[in-house]
């Protein structure tokens, strides 16, 4: 984080600032695979084929739609084209 100059006031939440500053780190192919895999897991769960483990499909679905993977951010990985 960078220092705030004297006389200025921080008006944003620090957590929001860090998430916004991170931006997207998931590329279009990665996002597509995540959304399809997430929907497939959820569909299999709703169909009764895999049980409650299908709820894990929410993780790739949400990260694919949002374009941000917190684990990628923590590891310094990005599949997004520069």
Report on the structure:
With 82 residues, the chain is mostly helical. It has one domain. The protein is 52% helix and 0% strand. It is elongated. It starts with 13 loop residues before the first helix and ends in a 7-residue tail after the last helix.
Q: Topology as H/E string?
A: HHHH
- The proportion of residues forming helix, as a percent range, comes to 40-55%
- Rounded to the nearest angstrom, the distance between the terminal CA atoms is 23 Å
Care to count the β-strands? 0
- The dominant shape is elongated
Largest sheet: none
Mean of residue pLDDT values: 83
Rg value: 17 Å
Protein structure class: mainly alpha
Q: Please report which band the strand proportion falls in: under 5%, 5-15%, 15-25%, 25-35%, 35-45% or over 45%.
A: under 5%
Provide a count of the helices: 4
Low-confidence stretches: 11-20
Topology:
Blueprint: H1 14-22, H2 28-46, H3 58-66, H4 70-75
Helix pairs in contact: 2-3
Please supply descriptive tags for the structure shown above:
0% strand; mainly alpha; 52% helix; 4 helices; 82 residues
Summarize the model shown.
This protein has helices at 14-22, 28-46, 58-66, 70-75.
């Amino acid at each position: 984080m960078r220092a705030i100059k004297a006389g200025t006031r921080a008006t944003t939440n620090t957590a929001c600032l860090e998430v916004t500053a991170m931006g997207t780190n998931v590329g279009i192919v990665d996002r597509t695979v995540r959304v399809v895999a997430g929907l497939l897991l959820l569909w299999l769960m709703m169909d009764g084929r895999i049980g409650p483990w299908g709820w894990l499909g929410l993780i790739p679905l949400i990260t694919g739609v949002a374009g941000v993977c917190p684990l990628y951010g923590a590891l310094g990985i990005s599949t997004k084209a520069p």
